[in-house]
């Protein structure tokens, strides 16, 4: 991830925290969690529309930006490699 993208993610996390969200989570990830919990899908639809090109084909289904952001958060991809969850050892 380049420097510019790091700054955009940091700004995104700051806005999310200022709006009452978790400080290390992006608005997109938070929107996906709200959508899955049935607490409102409009933020997810809005963000996915803004990032319409960020999709991934998965066996006939399409994962969009908010879902991909949530999965990235769960896997710790935004963290430095030495802080990412350890896989294959039963630890997370």
Polypeptide structure, described:
Helices cover 50% and strands 7% of the residues. With 92 residues, the protein is mainly α. The chain has one domain (10-80). A hairpin with a 2-residue loop joins strand 1 and strand 2 (61-63). The longest helix has 16 residues, at 3-18. It starts with a helix and ends in a 17-residue tail after the last helix. The relative contact order is 0.11. The model has no long low-confidence stretch (mean pLDDT 88).
Write the layout of secondary structure elements.
Blueprint: H1 3-18, H2 27-36, H3 42-50, E1 56-58, E2 61-63, H4 65-75
Antiparallel strand pairs: 1-2
Helix pairs in contact: 2-3, 2-4
Relevant terms:
single chain; 92 residues; mainly alpha; 2 strands
Radius of gyration computed on alpha carbons:
14 Å
Instruction: Bin the strand percentage.
Output: 5-15%
Global shape: globular
The class by helix and strand makeup works out as mainly alpha
Number of helical segments? 4
How many domain modules? 1
Unreliable segments of 5+ consecutive residues: none
Overall helicity: 40-55%
Biggest sheet overview = 2 strands, antiparallel
Order of helices and strands: HHHEEH
Report the oligomer. Answer: single chain
Query: How are the strands of the largest sheet arranged?
Result: 1-2
Mean pLDDT: 88
User: How many E strands?
Assistant: 2
Spatial separation of the terminal alpha carbons: 23 Å
């Amino acid at each position: 991830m380049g420097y510019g993208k790091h700054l955009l993610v940091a700004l995104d996390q700051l806005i999310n925290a200022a709006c009452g969200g978790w400080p290390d989570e992006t608005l997109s990830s938070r929107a996906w969690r709200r959508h899955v919990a049935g607490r409102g899908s409009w933020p997810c639809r809005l963000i996915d529309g803004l990032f319409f090109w960020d999709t991934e084909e998965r066996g006939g289904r399409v994962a969009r930006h908010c879902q991909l952001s949530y999965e990235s958060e769960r896997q710790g991809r935004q963290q430095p490699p030495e802080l990412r969850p350890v896989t294959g050892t039963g630890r997370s």
